[in-house]
Design brief:
The complex is a heterotrimer of chains A (430), B (332) and C (158). Chain A has 430 residues and is of the alpha+beta class. Chain A folds into 2 domains: 14-122 and 184-274, Aldehyde Oxidoreductase, domain 3 (Alpha-Beta Complex), CATH 3.90.1170; 154-181 and 277-423, Aldehyde oxidase/xanthine dehydrogenase, molybdopterin binding domain (Aldehyde Oxidoreductase, domain 4). Helix content of chain A is 25%, strand content 23%. In chain A, the strands form 3 sheets. A 7-stranded mixed beta sheet of chain A has the order 3-5-1-12-9-10-11. A 5-stranded mixed beta sheet of chain A has the order 7-15-14-13-8, sandwiched between helices. The longest helix of chain A is centred in the C-terminal third of the chain and has 18 residues, at 355-372. Chain B is elongated. Chain B starts with a strand and ends with a helix. Chain B is 27% helix and 25% strand. In chain B, helix 1 (49-61) runs parallel beside helix 2 and helix 4 (218-237) packs across helix 5. Classes of the chains: A alpha+beta (430), B alpha+beta (332), C alpha+beta (158). Strand 8 of chain A pairs parallel with strand 12 of chain B.
Chain lengths: 430, 332, 158
């Protein structure tokens, strides 16, 4: 233990929290501030043929309306094809098409409902296995499979799985299905934007990555960083959902257009339905194990439903490669991982990103392998656990391993008496 | 009927951006009265980076934590943080802070040298002062350094940055990508009770061991361990944004439909311990932590359900309907 | 059509102009600048808007403002005394690590304060029941229960 590190001191902002004085973005209120509501696509897939905002613009209490043509710079903010406001091609239900700023949210919402929208609805695809078929409706022009540097799937090949299966005494095949999650932080997405006294655009933000988001926002506003600043750093929960912006870009464009302070916040309903999600995963594992407990091979096919745009969906498929075999030394690992577009909200980062998903599958698979050879589930884990110097499927060399020690401690705390030969094991040596 | 079952899991988690090269910067300056301003770009979402960062700076300078003020608010003056994600903030931000503090210490030694009639190389910094090596009585306190520098035409400010090795893309043929900042580990034992009439699963007891290199801020770690458990329980048993996935029918649009854990869903008995296998590159050996605490429960709960009712349900969330259908199928 | 609503807020008489469909949460946050009750869902699911109405924890997002006419409303601001002293539960939440992002904290504290006002020595089950309507995505539940138990056992009392 150090002098100051390792001390259980209370949280820096804890007194603010317990007195209710911590300030979040929705607590920001500025003179003359307007409220924004968005017009969102009512269809899962379609083409916008016309958009008539005149009835909204002319409604009493409405200060302004923005559409794609009002974006000062590029109408894209993470993926090069993901628009701030859709001009023509809709890819998921709830995509923003226009935004209205008014004296209050009720007035803004009423104005949104007056906007005339002519959409030609098209056939969507929701099932990633359907979307992978050659004749599936295209979510995007380039097709529904993300192109990795290894082709239309992430390839990982370590060792020789066929050899591994040949050496195995038992083979277990199993499918794992993992559905979608939402971050559901207690604080929904919100942003407040205004032009400050130095003619600079200021945005109060819930962003988890403000410098990263600055580099995305400045091209949208067509402004250098010297003209834009983001104020934040105190967020009511993020869990990966606030690595992506839902409000800052729209609020900024509106503030620039109207030169008024504006607040754009998602209702909980909008946040749950339209903000980024943890996308679904399906894993098909085929694994081999010897009677002595050594896992010889994993062959994994993965399908990740990444929704309508690629932001971090394909990164998820890459990131999970490290733990395809769990934290265990398996010599032969084969993986084909697919990132598949569907007409759904965007799948992006969420706590445990992709690793929680491959961990679920690989951990249960260890139990099934143990069952197949009649071995205790602790024992199979101890035998295969990473030691220092072992190699992960991605060829990372293990440093400062701690799995065996964690298992020993958990067993001890739970009153489980592990056999001596397991207690004698260590992460420091095989 | 209520059936009890026990399940285990053991997991690892990665710190840092896959592919590496995810940087952070840090800035620390001494104020007029010898307290310090620490500027960091990391957003605090409740994961506690503000608290951990102050402790790291206090340790690096050997000054009380209370004398470190932290500001992370406005991009006009906060140094770069790529983002509060990938469990990277402590590892990358912490290393940047240590670098900034070393820079500040070097400048303080140079500034204090004439005051102590010594060469900078003969000075040490510790215990809230600058002193001559081997002669701690010959010292000048931080308050005096702060006053003398700020009012004396000097600006003692330390800056630092840290970037993990990279960037590296996976090999197109093999997927090899051997870079990684650090890996942390955990093991979990869960005891559940399955109500075979309603399909409801209650987590009765959970036991966790987390190996995280170094617990910089143990009270913060406690919050992450227990808080992550709540999210793990929700993911395992009740959270589904699109319950009929891959169909988009009846998406959850209220927190009544997107069911997260409440206080009533937490195990009555909960134990945890933190282990430390120091990482050679982490700040004071810390590996990074926070995301992983919601990972271990999910497969452990699945295994516990199997132990209770003899069925492997390998889909999450494992809802009451799925439990009841599995029991029905087992009957046939 | 607007009406004057008069009620007692944190011990003070207030008069404010409201619309018939304004919720108490709208009035507190937008008209009276009392910002500690939070807008987490607006449908009564999360409890971040919890206030004490005549001593009972209620969802201010589901309470029509005009129905509190003549009644006593307390938010967390009522519990920090003029000398800057905290209620024992506020101190305990802070010291036991029962806050993380802090967004749900005011609501959860009010549910806890109300519990101990009515039931100074609650069982663990009663504590869990009292805060089970305050959703916390950061998952501070176990620390909150620990803090409430500690105060019930005398921690922080003069």
């Amino acid at each position: 233990m150090g002098k100051y590190i390792g001390q259980p001191i209370p949280r820096y902002e804890g007194l603010g929290h317990v007195t209710g004085t911590t300030r979040y973005v929705d607590d920001v209120s500025l003179p003359g501030m307007l409220y924004i509501k968005a017009l969102r696509s009512p269809v899962h897939k379609g083409i916008i043929h016309s958009l008539d905002v005149s009835a909204a613009v002319n409604m009493p209490g409405v200060a302004g309306v923005i559409t794609a043509k009002d974006i000062p710079g590029q109408n894209a903010y993470y993926a090069t094809d993901q628009p701030v406001l859709v001009k023509e091609h809709i890819r998921y239900k709830g995509e923003r098409i226009a935004a209205v700023a008014a004296v209050d949210e009720d007035t803004a919402q009423e104005a949104v409902e007056k906007i005339k929208l002519d959409i030609e609805e098209q056939a969507p695809v929701f099932d990633p296995f359907e979307a992978m078929k050659p004749d599936a409706p295209k979510v995007r022009p380039e097709g529904n499979l993300w192109e990795f540097n290894s082709g239309r799937r992430r390839v990982l090949r370590k060792g020789d799985v066929e050899k591994g299966f040949a050496e195995a005494d038992e083979i277990v095949e199993h499918r794992y299905v993992e559905k979608m999650n939402d971050h559901a932080p207690m604080e929904p997405h919100v942003a407040v934007a205004y032009i400050d006294e130095n003619d600079r655009l200021a945005i109060h933000t819930v962003s988890q990555a403000r410098h990263f988001h600055l580099t995305q926002l400045c091209p949208v506003f067509n402004l250098p960083i010297s003209k834009v600043h983001l104020i934040g750093g105190t967020v009511g929960g993020g869990f990966g959902g606030k690595n992506e912006m839902q409000c800052e870009h729209v609020a900024g464009v509106m503030a620039l257009k109207l030169r008024r302070a504006v607040k754009f916040r998602l209702s909980r309903k909008e946040d749950l339905l339209y903000s980024t999600k943890r996308g679904a995963f399906v894993f098909d594992y085929k694994s081999g194990v010897k009677k002595d407990g050594h896992v010889t091979a994993h062959q994994v096919r993965g399908v990740h439903d990444i929704g309508a745009y690629h932001t971090m969906g394909e990164y998820a498929v890459e990131k999970q490669c490290l733990y395809l075999a769990g934290p265990y030394a398996v010599p032969n690992v084969w993986y084909d991982g697919h990132a598949v577009f569907t007409n759904k909200p965007v799948a992006s980062s969420m706590r445990g990103f992709a690793v929680v998903n491959v961990t679920y599958a690989s951990e249960i698979q260890m139990n099934l392998l143990a069952e197949a050879i009649g071995m205790d589930p602790w024992e199979i884990r101890f035998i295969n656990a990473w030691r220092d110097g072992d190699t992960a499927p991605t060829q990372w060399k293990v440093v400062a391993a701690g799995l065996i020690e964690s298992m020993k401690k958990a067993a001890e705390m739970d009153g489980i008496e592990l056999p001596e030969h397991l207690k004698a094991m260590s992460s420091r040596r095989r | 009927m209520k059936e009890k079952g026990k399940g285990i899991s053991s997991i690892g988690y990665a710190t840092g951006f896959f592919g590496g090269a995810d940087p952070n910067q840090a800035e620390i300056s001494i104020k007029m009265d010898g307290t310090f301003d620490l500027l960091m770009g990391t957003s605090d979402l409740g994961q506690g980076c503000k608290t951990a960062y102050r402790q790291i700076a206090a340790e690096a300078l050997d000054v009380p934590v209370e004398s470190i003020a932290l500001n992370n608010s406005d991009t006009d003056f906060i140094p770069m943080c790529l983002g509060a994600f990938a469990s990277r903030a402590t590892f990358v931000g912490g290393n940047a802070i240590i670098a900034a503090c070393e820079d500040l210490k070097r400048k303080m030694r140079e500034f204090a040298a004439p005051m102590l009639e010594a060469k900078p190389g003969e000075l040490e910094i510790g215990d809230n002062k600058v002193f001559v090596k081997g002669n701690p009585e010959k010292s000048v306190g931080m308050a005096d350094i702060g006053g003398a520098s700020n009012f004396g035409g000097a600006y003692l400010i330390g800056t630092g940055a840290y970037i993990p090795p990279g960037p590296m893309s996976p090999d197109p043929k093999t997927g090899a990508m051997p870079l990684l900042s650090a890996a942390a580990f955990a093991a979990c034992v869960v005891e559940v009770e399955v109500d075979t009439e309603t399909g409801v699963v209650q987590v009765l007891k959970s036991t966790h061991a987390y190996e995280i290199g170094k617990a910089i801020s143990p009270l913060i770690c406690k919050g992450q361990i227990n808080g992550g458990a709540a999210m793990g329980i929700g993911m395992a048993l009740s959270e589904s944004a699109h319950p009929y996935w891959p169909s988009v029918d009846f998406p959850a649009d209220t927190l009544g439909d997107y069911v997260i854990a409440t206080a009533a869903d937490m195990p009555v008995e909960d134990h945890y311990e933190i282990l430390e296998v120091p990482h050679p590159d982490g700040p004071y050996g810390a590996k990074g932590f926070c995301e992983m605490s919601s990972n271990a429960q999910i497969p452990a709960i699945t295994a516990a359900i199997h132990d209770a009712i003899g069925v492997w349900i390998t889909e999450f969330p494992t809802t009451p309907e799925m439990i009841l259908r599995a029991l029905e199928d087992k009957e046939r | 059509m607007k009406y004057t609503l008069s009620f007692t807020l944190n011990g003070c008489e207030v008069d404010v102009l409201v619309k018939p469909n304004d919720t108490l949460l709208d009035v507190l946050r937008e008209k009276l600048q009392v910002l500690s009750p939070k807008r987490g869902c607006d449908t009564g699911d999360c409890g971040a808007c919890t206030v004490l109405l005549e001593g009972e924890p209620v969802r201010s997002c589901l309470t029509i403002a005009m129905t509190v006419a003549g009644k006593k409303v307390r938010t967390i601001e009522a519990f920090t005394s003029g000398e800057g002293k905290l209620h024992p539960l506020q101190q305990a939440f802070h010291e036991h690590g029962a806050t993380q992002c802090g967004f749900c904290t005011p609501g959860m504290l009010l549910s806890s304060i109300s519990l101990l006002e009515k039931n100074p020595k609650p069982s663990r089950e009663e504590i869990v029941e009292a805060i089970s309507g305050n959703l916390c995505r950061c998952g501070t539940y176990l620390e909150a229960v620990e803090a409430i138990e500690a105060v019930a056992n005398g921690e922080g009392k003069e």
